[in-house]
Amino acid sequence: MKDKIHFSEWEKIDLRVGKILKVEDHPKADKLYLIQVDLGTERRQLVAGLKPYYPREELEGKFCIVVTNLEPAMIRGEKSEGMLLAADYRQEDKVVLITVEKEVPSGVKVR
Fold this sequence. Notes:
Blueprint: H1 7-10, E1 15-25, E2 33-38, E3 43-48, H2 56-59, E4 63-67, E5 73-75, E6 78-80, E7 83-84, E8 86-89, E9 94-97
Antiparallel strand pairs: 1-2, 1-4, 2-3, 4-7, 5-6, 8-9
């Protein structure tokens, strides 16, 4: 486990429910997708390394958790405006997207 942080640091993270609308192959990376996510009041593009673990069709329509207040990053020439949460257990070579159990409106804050 990593060092503990104060609760005030945790409160800085803005987690929102997002609905995955569209998934495309990244034009310059074999393991990355370009993912369009509906966050209620806006749509964003995320770059995610889920291609080895999920076919596009399985991701589209899922409700997931998005870190929305990260600074945008350029990943292999494509802008990523957030991050999807996933469980990564490499000893079994699996990455599992964290999804929402029941449908809720896009953009709902995760607490």
